[in-house]
Design a protein that fits this description.
Elements: E1 5-11, H1 14-26, E2 29-35, H2 37-45, E3 52-55, H3 64-73, E4 81-86, H4 91-99, E5 104-107, H5 113-127
Parallel strand pairs: 1-2, 1-3, 3-4, 4-5
Helix pairs in contact: 2-3
């Protein structure tokens, strides 16, 4: 039996978080979610190690880029792949994501939830080649 891909969704919008959690769960992912970067860091510091982290950029206290820098700095879940899911799609944001080692950048505003799942699945498929 094939094991499910563990995805960790980090967003400060509880409605979006719940919606994506449900959609990914229905698409055969094992889903965990954190409402904001501080809750996500707490969970990662306990040793939680997802396969994929799907991270929003625009969040209060600490944005998604700062969160990923902190994850890297503290060497939290070093085998996880990071994908940004944001409404910000400026080239400078995409470049900053690449500099932080993200394997994908998905713009929420131009993707339906089903397309987001398809894009994440495609990224995972390409990682496993």
């Amino acid at each position: 039996m094939e094991s499910k891909t563990k995805i960790f969704i980090v967003d400060d919008d509880s409605l979006l978080l719940d919606m994506y959690a449900l959609k990914f769960s229905n698409s055969n992912f094992e889903v965990s979610a954190a409402l904001g970067p501080m809750a996500a860091l707490e969970k990662l510091r306990t040793g939680f190690a997802p396969d994929i982290m799907l991270v929003d950029v625009v969040m209060p206290v600490m944005d998604g880029f700062e969160f990923l820098e902190k994850v890297k700095e503290e060497n939290l879940s070093p085998l996880s792949f990071h994908i940004i899911l944001s409404n910000r799609g400026q080239q400078s944001d995409i470049e900053r994501g690449k500099d932080l080692g993200v394997v994908g950048y998905i713009v929420k505003a131009t993707s339906t939830p089903s397309e987001v799942i398809d894009k994440v699945s495609e990224i995972i498929k390409n990682l496993n080649k």
